[in-house]
Amino acid sequence: MSPILVRPVREQLEHDRIIRLLQARTKRRHDAVINPGAEQNAGVGTGTRTVYPDLVLYSTERGRKLQSVVEVETGESVNHLEALAQWAHLARLKVPFHLYVPAPAIDVARRLASEYRIEVGELWIYDNIGDQVRFTLVQRSPEAARRPAASAPAPRAASARTPARRKAPAPVRPAAKTAGKRAPAGRARNARKAPVRKLAKAMRRKGPAQKRK
Description:
- The chain is of the alpha/beta class.
- The protein has a domain at 9-146: Trna Endonuclease, Chain: A, domain 1 (3-Layer(aba) Sandwich), CATH 3.40.1350.
- The chain contains 5 helices and 6 strands.
- Strands 1-2-3-4-5-6 form a 6-stranded mixed sheet, with helices on both faces.
- The longest helix is centred in the last third of the chain and has 28 residues, at 185-212.
- The radius of gyration is 45 Å and the shape is rod-shaped.
- Residues 148-162 and 209-213 have low confidence and may be disordered.
């Protein structure tokens, strides 16, 4: 809910339409409760310090833990009063503060956040393209960039007690034994014919000597 005293009716309708669009965009990951217009459906803080951002995002788990708050501004509400009364207070919460402003007001929003040292977790712009509304993230704080997404699973750390498995070396086959193996067939036949050849050769040598006698 904006602290500005008077917001034009046209801008108020546009403001509430953007809130409902954001609620539909975030319902898959969060339980989003909106505070359109003068409604006070979900507050943040206690006692007199309770404020009612445009969107309050809770986790979908059983405990419904508060995860972030969202403030949507129109062209008339991007000013010093809004920055001091709303942005500065929401930025001091222990959850990220997301700010949505019209595209033409981005430079003014950046200057106000820098001037009053307001930590904006995510700064978005929105603009109308026909009947559609386009949302664009233009700035994210280093803390929000380092924070892992709620839906992303945490990486599993490697255990020091279970070292990486190594592949077992291939078994070495014993060398084939050569003792006791038969020689090739060609060598066996040549070995049997060798004495016959020697005997024939000796007889040829003795043949002429016997004729002379």
